[in-house]
Design a protein that fits this description.
Blueprint: E1 4-5, H1 16-27, H2 44-64, E2 71-74, H3 77-90, E3 98-102, H4 107-119, E4 123-127, H5 137-143, E5 148-154, H6 166-175, E6 180-183, H7 195-198, E7 202-206, E8 217-221, H8 236-239, H9 247-260, H10 263-283, E9 290-293, E10 303-308, H11 313-322, E11 325-326, H12 342-347, E12 354-358, H13 365-387
Parallel strand pairs: 1-11, 3-4, 3-5, 5-6, 6-7
Antiparallel strand pairs: 2-8, 7-8, 9-10, 10-12
Helix pairs in contact: 1-9, 2-9, 3-4, 5-6, 11-13
Amino acid sequence: MARHYLDHASTSPIRPEARAAMVAVLDGEGFGGLQPADPSRIHAEGMAARVALEQAREHVAALVGARAREVVFTSGATEAIAAATWGAARERAGSPAHMVVTAVEHSAVREASAAFTGVTGGSVTVVGVDRVGRVDPDEVGAAIRPETVLVHVQWANHEVGTVQPVAEVVERCRARAVLVHVDAAQAVGHVPVAFDELGVDLLSLSGHKFGAPPGTGALLVRRGLRLTPLLVGGDQERARRAGLENVPALAGLGAACEVLAQPARADAEQTAARALTERVLLAVPGLDGVRVYGDADHRVPHLVCLGVDGIEPQAVLLGLDQAGVAAHSGSACASEGLEDSPVLAAMGVDAHRSLRISVGWSTRDDDIDALLTALPDVIARLRALGSG
């Protein structure tokens, strides 16, 4: 049976360009056959690794509209979020730190904020959202206090795809001279991102969300901003993140970013993704007891979330999997278990029964064909079992 992968918002298969870049570094291709070494060393092997690392940094910066020196490589968005949060909290060492988060932030943001403000005896204010998962910038601004050290706002929601009014939130924070961190894990590689133009202080991204190798990511740190590093013990990444850089994987990240920094390629992928998810949205009116969650006017192109009345999400996912379709339940984003979703709960909708469909660079029309063929049959069969 053919398989149809529709869970790119969780992780996207590695792009061939990224794979080739990794292999080239591992084989020493382009570096006189030199094997990858510590890029902090001044021997030939180390300098070759340094060249590959800095090329990758430049490609990441070009994709997100930043300076190369603003890019700090990490193992992914989770580490980047923790580093931003820890660094901001440490700026108030000796006194309670306060942070502001929206109610629909990823668990990496919510838990890091709670943990690191707790170290200082501080607190977190959670700002609510409307029925489509969108936050009011004025409410975020009103939550800022004199002791606020950081405001978190995601660019796009990981469960329902709603795009937040990031520019307006950043404006409120700048007016109060408060640092702002943007979780852009579901935005980078899917919509245009302009870090410097936006005026944001910190931005996190994860490579595996758009076809780069797993275990790669970055924290963008505005030029001139100094934060206490989360990982200490070495001077790597200009003393902003200790530990030997994973040069082959980061070369893969750079290659994926280089591909997407080409306007024609990025536009084509975004157009294709939107067309694929629009097919899903157009099919919803014909599905019994199914509705769309999220903001229809402000959403990322690659992700849609559906509510399915009266059916356990595990059953829907298993039914689709048996039909060869890999999807995801929005209620599982908070943990590895199928728990109620804090995102959907914050929106005031059914927090337990949802289905997330997400596409990516490798998705084709036949993948959506398979979903639209299987989903009505799965729902009808499960409803029949429930009424039997």
